[in-house]
Write a structure and sequence with these properties.
Layout lengths: L4 H25 L9 H10 L3 E4 L4 E6 L4 E6 L9 H13 L6
Antiparallel strand pairs: 1-2, 2-3
Length: 103
């Protein structure tokens, strides 16, 4: 049986990306919330869930998911990149109640 290299690489890439995003999702859904999650991780997770990033003025950022008509508004953390625990809790609620079947 001959293996199609394109199918093999595509399948390998798909499982790598999906497992990486699933691990990230699991980190965001942990109770109690982790205190070392970053805005970059949140951005990566939301984009993988179908959200588009919309830059606002200053540190304001919106993420919009057209498929489920959901908007997430927040400020980028500063001076460092770590998210506050209250924001992580809000994101957890949004993910659980936002119409995601896999969350």
């Amino acid at each position: 049986m001959m293996i199609n290299i394109f199918d093999f690489v595509t399948n390998l890439w798909y499982h790598y990306i999906m497992s990486k995003q699933q691990k990230l999702l699991n980190k965001f859904l942990e109770i109690p919330p982790k205190k070392n999650l970053t805005f970059d991780e949140l951005e990566s997770l939301l984009i993988s869930l179908g959200y588009k990033k919309l830059e606002g003025s200053g540190s304001r950022v919106k993420f919009y998911n057209e498929e489920i008509d959901d908007m997430i508004n927040l400020h980028k953390p500063h001076p460092d990149n770590k998210l506050k625990v209250y924001l992580i809790k809000q994101i957890q609620e949004k993910l659980k109640n936002g119409g995601f079947d896999n969350v």
